[in-house]
Amino acid sequence: MKRPYNFSAGPAALPQEVLEQAAAEMLDWHGSGMSVMEMSHRGREFMSIRDQAETDLRELLDVPSHYHVLFMQGGGIAENAIVPLNLSRGGTVDFVVTGGWSAKSYKEAKRYCRARVAASSEADGYTRIPAQWQLSERPSYVHVCTNETIHGVEFQELPDLKALGCDAPLVIDCSSHIASRPIDWSRVGLAFAGAQKNIGPAGLTLVIVREDLVGHALEICPSAFDYKTVAENHSMYNTPPTYAIYTAGLVFQWLKRQGGVAEMERRARAKAELLYGYIDASGWYVNKVDPTCRSRMNVPFFLPDDRLNEAFLAGAKERGLLQLKGHKSVGGMRASIYNAMPLEGVQALVDYMREFAARHG
Amino acid sequence: MKRPYNFSAGPAALPQEVLEQAAAEMLDWHGSGMSVMEMSHRGREFMSIRDQAETDLRELLDVPSHYHVLFMQGGGIAENAIVPLNLSRGGTVDFVVTGGWSAKSYKEAKRYCRARVAASSEADGYTRIPAQWQLSERPSYVHVCTNETIHGVEFQELPDLKALGCDAPLVIDCSSHIASRPIDWSRVGLAFAGAQKNIGPAGLTLVIVREDLVGHALEICPSAFDYKTVAENHSMYNTPPTYAIYTAGLVFQWLKRQGGVAEMERRARAKAELLYGYIDASGWYVNKVDPTCRSRMNVPFFLPDDRLNEAFLAGAKERGLLQLKGHKSVGGMRASIYNAMPLEGVQALVDYMREFAARHG
């Protein structure tokens, strides 16, 4: 069966092998007689699934042992509150605003701390990462979104706060490019990621946090979202999203079989070069982001005339190229080309784009 | 294929037909070429799934049109914070404590309001519903857990606060018996339920709330958990747990095919009568709960000697009777017999109990 290519920004395409395995095991996981959905989260079977998922994730991302791996609920939007509830200590927090997601994080944090914009590229329409950062004297932490899903802006290297004279921990929202490139943990205090882009189904949020940052939650932090409580209970304080953890675990196994994050990065480079290369060469389609910080995962692009958008989307769908419509705040098109998107899918998109441009150009 | 009978308290057994349909549709939902897991939550396909789930749930539970139906994340434990964040207005809230879950709700609410115990059966080991309630003058709301999963205590009728001279809205945590009996909405301001017992997979929480109670959240309430924000965005403010909503929707369709909540209640009565009837008649097994408030969903029971527990569980597993171990805070055994448990499963359990008692009695 030939499946269409799904360019959704999230929830997003999953590897076909993962879906096939999930379907095959749906009524009986490993001879247990139960679906994973039906297992007590505290039973031996599910505990082994959870433990394996954590082990594989630690291996894939090379997570140091003094970081907790937490499986939570609520997605990036809930973490916009949960991070300051846990890490701000009611003090000052610096935000580098590079697109819609970091702007949202900044706004939400204001409920819990003195949130400051240390740098912003809003005036440039979020097409680059600002060069000059005005960090506070002693912020509780510094927040960046390392891949802006909506605007298609990605940090090609993590900021080195120490080199900027800042001792505060760096918090990264890496929802939409986690597991597509290595993470330099020496620069990161906390990383969070909604699962529904590169990891698995919606409803699971990964939080990877350095041990010393845990245990300082504000009193108003709900127990279910207090990292200390979550860590002490191995993500079992509230019933975790068991089936989403299981599916994410299947994705981790798939990633390992493919060659891990290094191989994913190699493929991401190849896919991004193919698509941006064509867009720039076309002289017809436009991506507005500074080439030094273009996202390898989310590629927004525009046709010369918005009145062609509907025809473009309809023709794409006919060819099995799905969910290419841009985010409503930006318009145009967006191709999300996460780990599960093969190079052939990007090639099929480029072929279609070339054909469409020739017919309408 | 004969599947074992799974008595887990949650995550719990699902109807086999639901699992079969989920497996069959895993790689291609209704010719879309996508798994439900891969669909944008804002796309036409998933919106139709969400809308159908809400329509079916409203029909099944006869939810009046002036109540919002919200699909959220975090489970009952997160709602223990989210409800007071939304409804307490920082005032006084009364709790009727009838077991482990309402005790936990009371404790968590103290972060956000003046939480009071209006009545408690703790001194009776949570074996009954207290008769005398000392309600406050003007509480923001009154909280009860209408089925205590751990202690096996169930309200056979919802409290009528107006008859008690109280105008406050009633909040019910009905996680572990939702859809097993009708809800008298004239007595209820808000109902919440983690999905992982009677509805679907873990990671989805249903909140059904009267419209006038929404819009009064404390400023410290995270946006993702502000009922007003959730309602205005049709549960799409943060990415919802799409696959869990889909699975719950399959359960709702199954419930409708079975004859709806009235039929579920008839079956629940029959299953509970069979199991409690045998326990009481056995003179060997014991359930300590006052017969007027025994749960039809969760049946804790004890063997005369705890040293027999391991042998009981091992023999049960051999016969395909799974996850019968009692909650660690209570000990003994617990049979959870939710909607997806057929009468034959309860009969198989009773047959085994009889055999075990004859051998060890």
Automatic annotation (TrEMBL), chains A, B:
Residues reported in the UniProt entry to bind L-glutamate: 42
N6-(pyridoxal phosphate)lysine: modified positions: 197
Entries under PROSITE patterns matching the protein: AA_TRANSFER_CLASS_5 (PS00595)
GO CC annotation, single: cytoplasm
Keyword match Calcium: no
GO BP: L-serine biosynthetic process; pyridoxine biosynthetic process
Primary location recorded for the protein, binned into one broad class: cytoplasm
Cofactor note: Binds 1 pyridoxal phosphate per subunit.
Location in or out of the cell: Cytoplasm
EC number: 2.6.1.52
Catalytic activity: O-phospho-L-serine + 2-oxoglutarate = 3-phosphooxypyruvate + L-glutamate; 4-(phosphooxy)-L-threonine + 2-oxoglutarate = (R)-3-hydroxy-2-oxo-4-phosphooxybutanoate + L-glutamate
Annotated GO MF terms: O-phospho-L-serine:2-oxoglutarate aminotransferase activity; pyridoxal phosphate binding
Domain (Aminotransferase class V) ranges: 5-349
Keyword Coiled coil found: no
Obligatory cofactor(s): pyridoxal 5'-phosphate
Pathways involved: Cofactor biosynthesis; pyridoxine 5'-phosphate biosynthesis; pyridoxine 5'-phosphate from D-erythrose 4-phosphate: step 3/5; Amino-acid biosynthesis; L-serine biosynthesis; L-serine from 3-phospho-D-glycerate: step 2/3
Complex and partners: Homodimer.
UniProt-listed HAMAP family: SerC_aminotrans_5
Protein name (Swiss-Prot/TrEMBL): Phosphoserine aminotransferase
Organism: Caldimonas thermodepolymerans
